[in-house]
Amino acid sequence: MPVAVESLASTILNHSATPYNFRFSPFLRQTYQVGLSPDRPVCKAFQSGHCPNGTRCPERHVSDSKTSQPTGGLNSLVCKHWLRGLCKKGEHCEFLHEYNLRKMPECNFFMRNGYCSNGDECLYLHIDPQSRLPPCPHYDMGFCPLGPNCSKKHVRKKLCVFYLAGFCPDGPDCKEGAHPKWSKDLEKPTLKSEEKKDEEMRMEFPQDDMDRQRDQQRDRDRDDGGRHRGGHGGHGGHGGRGKWRGRGRYRARGH
């Protein structure tokens, strides 16, 4: 009995997935390095400067961080083409080829529209638009007259207790807290855009806008119909009066 338990435990702990081989598996390994072991040795020829095998090399091609070109922080994001299986750069891609929810690219739909139909199930990042606003210089100095209606971001900072007491020996190099900076050349603070508020209201109440547009269209149709009937009747009445007047004169003359 203990032997069976140990074998079962080792089977569970040392479980290995069943390998599957397809006809296109060699093509994927040679072209896109799919299915290669991450523990394979590093290619020495690539480290020396050039590997004659290129993408067909069975060993790893690791770029040196000192000699590689700067990517501008792009290698901290997951490649969106790799997520769909469409990245053709392989190991030479500037982005990450791994599933990491903390390093996913930004959701374009949320960035453009302010909301995402996938909600919390979206795998891409939803960045708050308020975080993109520049800091308010008036608030950084200590007070902003517009308060929450300011169009810029109000960032709270911890004030240096030594500066608050009257003197900080570290001066501008202080790391204990913020030192207020006074400036007389600041621009006047601006309010949040009213148009943006109207757009937010329309996004919150789209059904009201649809009902309002439907009522306006109904009123226009009613006005156009009344004008059409009135104009037709007036023209017909005028023509009719002219005809009857002519007939009346003719009858009067004949009579």
TrEMBL record:
GO terms for biological process: mRNA 3'-end processing. Keywords: Metal-binding, mRNA processing, Nucleus, Repeat, RNA-binding, Zinc, Zinc-finger. A zinc finger (C3H1-type) spans 37-64, 73-100, 101-129, 130-157, 159-182. Its main location: nucleus. It is found in: Nucleus. Pfam families: zf-CCCH (PF00642), zf-CCCH_2 (PF14608). Residues 179-227 have a biased composition (Basic and acidic residues). Coiled coil: none annotated. Residues 37-64, 73-100, 101-129, 130-157, 159-182 form the C3H1-type domain. It comes from the Eukaryota. Residues 238-255 have a biased composition (Basic residues). One of its GO terms (molecular function) is zinc ion binding. GO terms for cellular component: nucleus. PANTHER family: CLEAVAGE AND POLYADENYLATION SPECIFICITY FACTOR SUBUNIT 4, CLEAVAGE AND POLYADENYLATION SPECIFICITY FACTOR SUBUNIT 4-RELATED. Belongs to the CPSF4/YTH1 family. Component of the cleavage factor I (CF I) involved in pre-mRNA 3'-end processing. This is mRNA 3'-end-processing protein. It comes from Fusarium venenatum.
